[in-house]
Specification:
alpha/beta, disordered C terminus, 16 helices, eight-stranded mixed sheet
Amino acid sequence: MDRTRFEKPPRWWGPRLSPLGVRLSGWLRRMIISKGPRISEVEVRGAEHVRRALDAGHGVLITPNHSVHGDPMIVYEAAEKFGSPLYFMGAWQVLAVNPIRCAFLRMHGCFSVDREGTDRQAMQQAVDVLQNRKEPLVIFPEGEVYHCNERVTPFREGPAALAVMAARKADRDVVVVPCGLRYYYVEDPLPALLELMDDVEAALFWRPTPERPMSERLYRVADGMLGLKELEFLGEARQGLVPERIAFLTDGVLKRVEEKYEISAEGKTIPERIKQGRQRAISAITEADEASEEYRGCADDLDDCYLCAQLFSYPGDYVAERPSIDRLAETLDKFEEDILERPTATVRARRRAVVVLGEPITVPKEKKRDAPSELTRTIEQRVQSLLDSVELPERSFELVPPRVPAAAVADPTG
């Protein structure tokens, strides 16, 4: 995972949406997605759903899955099909990188949010867009880039809660448009991936094993890295299926953080528990002296929460379910960031993007305690259905299903 700074933001950045600037910079966006995510073509389906909602005067929230760092630029390619610029809610760390990037993003409607705190300015901005602006608002409910392009991870309730909050006092209807972003290779990445696999094994002080099937090498690396973390936190490497070991280790690390800060984990998902731990640790570290034991302890807590987010990004059956070149590449992307500690994974061949926009979901105006939870579940299910609807074409370089070790049938790597 891309490691971001977890601290209190230095300021809040508001949007400076410029429709003219958005139109004139289209060539630059297309250059960015061709160089970074290496997208050679973007197919957009369902743009008419957004166009009809905008023509009807509705407030529109678009909720895509988030598996690639270049997702916002891809959504903007879709926006050209329904003819509207966009507002984006983005992590403050993205806007704090440098002034030029910040200005470019704000021109495209991006405003910052402190994901680990209660950011009232970001909430007010989001509600204002949904109640009053003609342009759609885009929020990624997964909150993190997990590199699982064909499967959503649990959606956070924040986007749905904002939509419900806006709908209750709006003079117009507010709708949510689920959005699936699906990527697949149109050029063979395997030669470059094999080189990357050699680098990963070498980083573990292992002799590269190119004679083994790629999937087997992935399983060995996952098992080895997990064993090292178990030794660090539990005192010994455990036995059993790797998905179960990941769940056990994640729960144990989070429980320690939760006990320290007196946090209840009841009814919370792993991402929600990680967020709670980060919030408390960030608050505590802000008040501590940098030379103190308390400061170092809080810094360790933030590192532990980050480890749990890394562990969570490896689902238990992702590769084994369909051992395609795309899923193997995504797992290697995570290895590149987590083991080789590179800021972002390097895409090693050309890909195609498919953006699927679904039927709008009208947000209820009546007060109901569980409304955000119910809406979140509906959005998550709809986005997954949109991803499932994309059928990949036959490709000459697609892998023959690789040999999977018997002990790894449940797929330890994700």
